[in-house]
Amino acid sequence: MVVFRSIQIIAAITAIILVIHTLRQFYRKRIGLGGMLFWIFIWILLLASMILISFEPLMFEFLSVIFMTELPLNAALILGVIILFFTSYELYLSRVNTDRDITEIVRHLAIMEEKIDSIAESIKFKEPKE
């Protein structure tokens, strides 16, 4: 008997919405082809896993054993939360690196501007005295 739990229905609807959103971002040129393909793969994987858990719960039984849960769906959700924490950490590191790069670029620009100003001052023509 196929049983769909509410969390599976919510996850499936969310996956469909996210596929549409990813396609819109691609067509607006906010993400590249590689990013679009990667995220659509992730959302379709989420959708497929929610459907497969309903039709073949034994296929995901190993997750229940690993995470010591009663239902494979609970184990899949725990795995999803772990992946979200990892992704959040990677985004944090990326932001820190971007901040560091921006700071370095601004420093270089400030140094170059100071050098340009000092060169401009040194080559200014002095007005002849009368």
Which ranges are low-confidence, i.e. pLDDT below 50, for 5 or more consecutive residues? Answer: none
Give the number of DSSP strands.
0
Largest sheet: none
* Helix percentage range: over 70%
Count up the helices: 4
> What value does the Rg take, in angstroms?
27 Å
Q: What's the N-to-C terminus distance?
A: 105 Å
Determine the strand fraction and express it as a percent band.
Answer: under 5%
What would you call the structural class? Answer: mainly alpha
How would you spell out the order of helices and strands? HHHH
> What sort of overall outline do the alpha carbons produce when their principal axes are compared?
elongated
Whole-number average pLDDT? Answer: 85
Q: Please tell me the total number of domains.
A: 1
Concise overview:
The protein has 130 residues and is mainly α. The chain has helices at 6-27, 33-55, 61-67, 72-122.
Question: Main attributes?
Answer:
130 residues; single chain; 4 helices
Word description of this protein:
This protein has 130 residues and is mainly alpha-helical. The chain has one domain. The mean pLDDT is 85.
Task: Compile the SSE list and pairings.
Blueprint lengths: L5 H22 L5 H23 L5 H7 L4 H51 L8
Helix pairs in contact: 1-2, 3-4
